[in-house]
Amino acid sequence: MAMENISAILHGINDLRLENTKIKEPKNDEVLLKMACVGICGSDVHYLVNGRIGDFILNKPMIMGHEASGTVIKLGKEVKHLQIGDKVAIEPGIPCRICNFCKKGKYNLCAEMKFCATPPIDGNLQQYYTHPADLCFKLPKNVTLEEGALAEPLSVAVHACKRAKVRVGSKVMIIGAGTIGLMILVTAKAMGADKVVIADVKKFNLEMAKKLGADGELLIVNPDSIEENIKNIKTLFEGFPNITIDATGVQSTINLALLVTEKGGSVVLVGMGSNEVKLPLIQALTKEVDIKSVFRYANDYSDALNILSKTDLDVKSMITHRFKLHETIQAFEEAKSRNNNTVKVMIYCD
Ligand code: 572
Ligand code: ZN
C-alpha cells in the first residue's frame, strides 16, 4: 500500500490546504527524508497573503516550506556521505552547478536556482521529501532536529556576517530583531564581535535579544526620528559602530544605518522591503562606507551547524510557537498575526 504523504499546499491567496501527494523515489544522488521540523519564514507568509513576491508568482499549487530538517530513510545508489537514520539540515536551494556563478562558489546567484517554496518549485512542508544528498547536512550529535531547521535562517546570518567582515573586535549594530536580526546577533557573537547592539520597535524581541547575549538593546520609538536614534546608538557604543546590518528593508532604518556607521565602515542590507528607497548617499560616500547586499547564502550551512554545535547560545529560544503538521493552517494564522510575542513558528511533521 502506498504511504500517505500529507503536504501543505498553497493553492492561491489565503488558500492553504493539507493534501496527500506522491512520494518521490530518490534518484542516484538523492535521499528520501522523513521530514521533522519546518519553520515558517516571512516569505511563506508573503506568498500566502499576496500570492507573489516580485516576479515570483504563484501560478499553480505549490507545497510550502524551506526552513527544514529531517531523517534519511532511503539512499540513492551513489550517496556515500549519509546513512539511513542520519538526521540532517536541508539546504533548500538547488543550483544548476554548471554556470559561472556556481563554479565560482557563488551559487546563491545562479539564475537556474530551484529554491524550495519559491514558485513554481515545491517546498518541504510535508511528511516525506526527496532532496539532493549533498545539500543535506548531517547534524552534529548535540544539535537537535529543531535546531537543524533553524540552520536555514542562521545561514542567512552567517552569509551576512561574512559579507560584513565581522571579526574579533567588530562593533556591530543590527537594525531589526526578527528571526534574521537575532540570528545575526548570535553569529556576530560567535565570530568574535566585541560589541553587538540591536534595535527594534518591539520590546518582546529586544528582551529575547538580551537573553541571546546582546550587549545593548535600543527600543526604537519612532523610526523617523533619525537624529534621536543616532544619539542613542552613539551612547550605547560610546562611539559609532563600524558595521551596521539592516534586517528590516525599511527606508528610515537604512538611512539610519548609513548615517550611524563609522567612517570607513560597512553597511550590509539583508532585509528586503520596498523596491525603491531614498538614501543619504553623499553622507555615505564622504565617509567611504561600503554598502553590500545579501542574497540567501552559499557554502554557509556547515558554519551555521558549527555555531549550533560549538556555542552555548540558545538559538532555539527564538521558537515562540510550535504546531503539528495537521495544525498547519493555525500555524500560518499565528505567523500571519504579527502578534507582539511571535518570532519563529515551527511545525513538526512527525
Ligand atoms: O530563507 C531564504 C529566504 N529568502 C528570501 C526571503 C525569505 N527567505 N528572499 C527574499 C525574496 N527573494 S526574491 O528574489 N524571490 C522571491 C526569489 O525576491 C529571495 C530571497
Ligand atoms: Zn526564508
Beta-strand residue fraction: 25-35%
Q: Extract low-pLDDT stretches.
A: none
Cα distance spanning the termini: 20 Å
Helix share bin: 25-40%
The SSE string, one letter per element, is EEEHEEEEEEHEEEHEHEHEHEHEHEHEHE
Q: What is the CA-atom radius of gyration, in angstroms?
A: 20 Å
Q: Helix segment count?
A: 10
- Secondary structure category: alpha/beta
Let me know the average pLDDT. 97
Could you tell me which ligands this complex binds, including any ions or cofactors?
ligand 572, zinc ion
Could you walk me through the main structural features you see in this protein, from its secondary elements to its overall organization?
This protein has helices at 42-50, 100-103, 145-163, 179-190, 203-211, 226-237, 251-260, 281-286, 301-310, 328-337; strands spanning 6-12, 15-20, 30-39, 52-53, 56-57, 62-63, 67-75, 87-90, 93-94, 114-115, 128-132, 136-138, 171-175, 195-200, 216-219, 243-246, 266-269, 290-293, 319-324, 344-348. With 350 residues, it is of the alpha/beta class. The strands form 5 sheets. Strands 3, 7, 8, 11, 12, 19 and 20 form a 7-stranded mixed beta sheet that branches. The protein has a 6-stranded parallel beta sheet with strand order 15-14-13-16-17-18, with helices on both faces. Strands 2-1-6 form a 3-stranded antiparallel beta sheet, with no helix packed on it. Helix 3 packs across helix 4 and helix 3 (145-163) packs across helix 9. The mean pLDDT is 97.
